[in-house]
């Protein structure tokens, strides 16, 4: 039980730092986060955040620090999922734009010939 409390804060801040780094790259250099390594880090850090939250949620502690760490984990991991959904929607819209552009170009070429 004591070991779990000692691991809670460092693991929370490590994951929070990782999530802040992912958010930074998502805003300023999305090509780095869309590599296979970037996506694996994104997914693993999100899953680890939820696993740590569920592990430490069952601790019988009323300390503000542990409760705050648990809240940071759930908010940060949920935000990573939100970014993933936004990225998926953005990529879907981009693909649809290219498909429509390609179809319009093909129809114009067919009219010319």
From TrEMBL:
Regions crossing the membrane: 7-27, 39-56, 63-82
UniProt KW Transmembrane keyword: yes
Keywords: Membrane, Transmembrane, Transmembrane helix
Name this protein carries in UniProt: Uncharacterized protein
Species, as recorded: Bacillus cereus BAG5X1-1
């Amino acid at each position: 039980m004591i070991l779990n409390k000692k691991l809670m804060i460092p693991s929370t801040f490590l994951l929070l730092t990782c999530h802040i780094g992912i958010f930074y790259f998502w805003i300023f250099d999305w090509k780095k986060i869309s590599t296979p390594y970037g996506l694996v880090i994104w997914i693993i850090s999100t899953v680890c955040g939820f696993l740590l939250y569920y592990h430490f949620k069952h601790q019988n502690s009323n300390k503000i620090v542990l409760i705050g760490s648990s809240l940071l984990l759930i908010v940060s991991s949920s935000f990573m999922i939100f970014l993933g959904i936004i990225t998926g929607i953005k990529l879907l819209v981009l693909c649809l734009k290219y498909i429509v552009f390609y179809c319009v170009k093909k129809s114009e070429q067919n009219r010319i010939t």
